[in-house]
Design goal:
1 helix; rod-shaped
């Protein structure tokens, strides 16, 4: 007995159309994934640029702090060590050269 029922043919056509739609949906999802991956890559690159700019600013600020602390210590004041936050002062030993150094960690910033 052969299946010549028109209802069976309609079911086959409906199933075929549904599978085609599912395939099209899957392929469009793949395109969205590529777009989101490209967007994520762009976001990561942008964040890396921001981090580099902030690192440069931090280094400039640390250099400025070090310079100001050294100048203050040179003028017989007390600066701040960028390493240990200890006091930076000018030392004038009797038989050696004068120098600016941290009294806590011993880092020397300048020698005359």
């Amino acid at each position: 007995m052969a299946n010549d029922n028109p209802a069976d043919e309609e079911e086959i056509e409906v199933e075929t159309e549904e599978s085609i739609e599912a395939t099209e949906t899957e392929s469009s999802e793949a395109v969205l994934d590529v777009e989101s991956a490209e967007q994520q890559t762009a976001d990561v690159d942008e964040l890396r640029d921001i981090i580099e700019e902030q690192n440069e600013r931090i280094e400039d600020l640390e250099d400025t702090l070090l310079d100001l602390s050294t100048r203050v210590a040179d003028g017989d004041g007390t600066g701040v060590c960028p390493d240990c936050n200890g006091p930076v002062v000018k030392r004038n030993p009797l038989f050696r050269r004068a120098r600016i150094e941290c009294t806590e960690c011993g880092r020397q910033f300048h020698e005359y």
